[in-house]
Specification:
It is a single chain. With about 550 residues, the protein is mainly beta. It has three helices and 33 strands. The protein has a 24-stranded antiparallel barrel. A two-stranded antiparallel ribbon has the order 6-7. The longest helix has 20 residues.
Amino acid sequence: MKKLFILIFTLSFNIISFAQNNSGQFYGDFDLNMQTYSEDRSIGAEEADEILLNNAYLNINYRKGNLYTGLRYESYLNALLDFDKEYQGNGIAYKYLTYKIDNLEITAGNYYDQIGSGLIFRSYENKRLGIDNSMDGVRLKFFPIRGLELKSFIGKSRTYFSYSDGIIRGVDINLSINDIFEKKLKDIKTKIILGQGIVSRYQKDNNPKFNLPQNVAAYSTRVTINYGKWKYFGEFATKLNDPIGALTIEENNYAKGSGIINSITYSKRGLGISAEMHRVDHMEFRSVRTVSKEYIINYIPALSKQHTYTLLGLYPCATQSEGEFGMQFDVFYKIKKGTLLGGKYGTKISLNFSRINALSGGNSFLNDSINHTPAFISIKDEELYFSDLNIEIYKKINRKLRSNFVLASQYYNKDVLEGKTRGTYGIVKSIIGVVDVQYRIKKGHTIKIELQELLTEQGDGAWSMGLLEYTISPNWFFAIQDMYNWGNKDSEKQLHYANYDFGYIKGATRIAVGYGKKRAGIFCVGGVCKEVPSSNGFNLSISTSF
């Protein structure tokens, strides 16, 4: 640990000195998460071998003129238990150099990027999920004329502290019709943006039994149309044959993959409406031919509401990139001030519905004996994976009192969404209610009370959750939270999961200390999920930017 701090100090000092001597701009951030793990047999929590586990990240960036450079030092000694054990040790995991000249931008080293919505390529970082598939290579961006952006890249995708064997190449074109033909279309209200992306993965075929494609390409075409208060986005993607998985005669799949996303929105003051649909079939794209999720280089946008309340997200929807058909509808409306329901401050109402189900007969499949293509639209009779119908009402009562109410009905196919054998868990149908009240006692002092209830006969049974939070703005916060699994059919598992937290905030620095228990389960962000083990212990988090 001593060597780590010495190295960090040396790097920081040298870069700061360089920045000061060269009149450039120096900036960055630091993030530290530490936790103890004690054994708790009642919740299945294991004791860690070490007294303390930690994840730490230090980003240092420098800019002068058209030159941008930086690095990120990461430390896992050892990694928190909800992170993959492959995250181990210390090292510079991210480094880059970018230079901009006229209408050209050149990046060497690490970079994050995305084509369209991510159907064929997305390189990104999410610390909460333990995901970092940054590219290591070269990227060029070229802006030859107004409204035209050309991008190309080549590299390898990060996997923990190393890089995958597959070589990823990509080209993307973004075309703003109105900007290119600005003079001819200056009076046209309709705005059109077109895009075309191509990504190719190369991996040498060393399989003695099967003839596997060494180059696998994926294509996507997209369009965005804006007209007044209306906006439409559509993207269609195709991935060429890419056998993965068991590579057996019975299971080897040479079928092409496809994905389509459509969304339309209407918005004006006090009203917003959106409708979305997507269909994906055999669309998981990896940097190498393997079943490991750490090698995934594309992203299927989630088609369900991303809930912030704990019990609403207890059974989250995991996107099934190998095959699903989904739709989502959102309506937001603000009842005007001065009306019977709007009151003095108005009332905000949000209504959301999402439904995700299987494709007709399963995903596309092609081998020597099977050639199956599912129907394009699969709604009525197909296996239901997930559905969520919820309404949220936000009301400001007076200058001191604010409230938020949520009522939801959810359907959760636990076996499919958690990748279990059929019949292991079955279906969870639940009704969830949330009451969230905030009261400002006096200037800078606010108390928040949050009550949640999940009712179901399946899964782990019914849950209750309560949260009490006291904030002394702008510096201090204190919170007590308890989840109680009172409806579990096993009386020995009718347990409390209590957590106690307090923290201090000063400018860009945040320090938080906590103690409590966490249940084992699935944690998702944007349809991407990971399994989280149960735990019991103290935690410390420190973050700052400079």
